[in-house]
Design brief:
Blueprint (H helix, E strand, L loop, with lengths): L4 E7 L2 E5 L4 H9 L4 E4 L1 H6 L2 H4 L10 E3 L6 H13 L8 H8 L1 H8 L6 E5 L8 H10 L6 E5 L8 H4 L1 E2 L5 H15 L6 E6 L51 E7 L2 E7 L15 H8 L3 E8 L6 E8 L12 H8 L2
Parallel strand pairs: 1-3, 1-4
Antiparallel strand pairs: 1-2, 5-8, 6-7, 6-8, 9-10, 9-11, 11-12
The protein binds adenosine-5'-diphosphate and magnesium ion.
């Protein structure tokens, strides 16, 4: 089989150039003599996958995608449009959904990640108390929690649309969930997830995880559905006054091996050295070739927890990290 080639999003303003957010990865790939081609992310999101892959030469590949997140159904369209051109993605559409959406990976990681329940939310209609009450009961009925969708939270609107101080206060649960659904709007992925809140070591607090330099620079997108997994904007995840963001390590796994361990893009100055003994067999059990796991250390020092799993193709790389080893590994896959 020939070495994999890469597909990157094109600059929306100039289809012949890579999107500025991925230009450095394109440069690294050129430096490695790796083939890459550009795809039109807006067309992928709009459901016109054939137009999106119009610049991809037929009969090439196999391909790794490195780009903005795509909803699982759009990724499936992407894979199908490439297949029509005799090309294929190394991550199948079901594989992408397994790593990208919490219900796809939760069963494998249960016990190593905060306890979670989820509710499908068709047509962005927020769940009412009759649906939330049993979900809250399945989560234990009391204590703090967070809400997100199958893929993303609104961690930068922590008090308004992410953090639930007390599950027993069903009216407050309903309020935070409804605000979350409203703010996600048409970009709500799948449904609503409720997760028990756990105390993680945070930047600026004493704890076993290494120190952090705080959040990084501007967000690459403005919430228009373009996102990689790790949006390095503004306030701390959670924005919990005086606490700072949870210190997370992002581990990049290829075929069950950790090929890159680095900081999370939200805390790029936080090198961390997580213990991977618990996570490694879980990643292998998930069975997806290229995934990331975001790991946080419990504030009480009792070990590492999986905050979330992601598809490696759409996980953001923190600026300043040496990604060439990861790309070399992907080229040899
Ligand atoms: N169960 C939890 N307990 C405590 N903090 C959490 C929990 N889940 C998420 N967080 C905090 O909220 C942030 C965002 O959650 P995450 O699941 O990573 O969503 P996103 O996909 O938006 O990054 C995390 O980086 C972490 O700081
Ligand atoms: Mg995250």
């Amino acid at each position: 089989m020939p070495a994999p080639a890469f597909l990157l999003p094109a600059d929306p303003l100039d289809g012949r150039r890579p999107d500025p957010h991925f230009a450095w990865e394109a440069r690294l790939l050129r430096g490695l003599d790796a083939e890459h081609h550009l795809v039109d992310h807006d067309a992928l999101l709009a459901g016109d996958a054939q137009a999106a892959v119009g610049r991809v030469p037929g009969g090439r590949g196999p391909f790794w995608y490195r780009g903005w997140m795509l909803p699982a159904d759009r990724y499936a369209d992407f894979a199908a449009a490439l297949a029509e051109r005799g090309a294929h993605l190394l991550t199948s559409a079901p594989g992408y959904a397994s790593a990208h959406e919490l219900p796809g990976w939760y069963g494998v990681f249960e016990g190593a990640t905060p306890t979670s329940v989820w509710l499908p939310v068709p047509a962005s209609v927020p769940p009412g108390p009759e649906e939330l009450a049993p979900a809250v009961a399945r989560l234990g009925g009391r204590g703090p929690a967070i809400v997100k969708d199958y893929v993303k939270s609104r961690k930068h609107e922590w008090h308004e649309a992410c953090y639930i101080p007390e599950l027993a206060d069903l009216a407050a649960v309903e309020r935070v969930v409804a605000r979350f659904v409203e703010l996600q709007g048409e970009f709500l992925a799948g449904g609503v997830v409720l997760r028990r809140f756990e105390e993680f070591a945070r930047a600026g607090t004493a704890g076993p995880a290494p120190r952090g330099d705080g959040p990084s620079g501007p967000r690459p997108s403005d919430g228009n559905g373009q996102d990689t997994d790790g949006d390095a904007d503004g306030d701390s995840p959670g924005g919990q006054a005086g606490k700072g963001p949870a210190v997370e390590a992002r581990v990049w796994w290829l075929d069950g091996e950790p090929v890159l361990v680095g900081p999370h893009p939200d805390t790029p100055g936080c090198p961390a050295d997580p213990d991977l003994a618990v996570v490694r067999p879980l990643v292998r059990a998930l069975g997806c070739r290229f995934v990331t796991t975001d790991l946080a250390h419990r504030a009480d020092g009792s070990g590492w927890r999986v905050v979330e799993v992601g598809d490696g193709q759409v996980s953001d790389l923190p600026r300043g990290i040496d990604a060439s080893g990861l790309l070399v590994a992907l080229l040899a896959a």
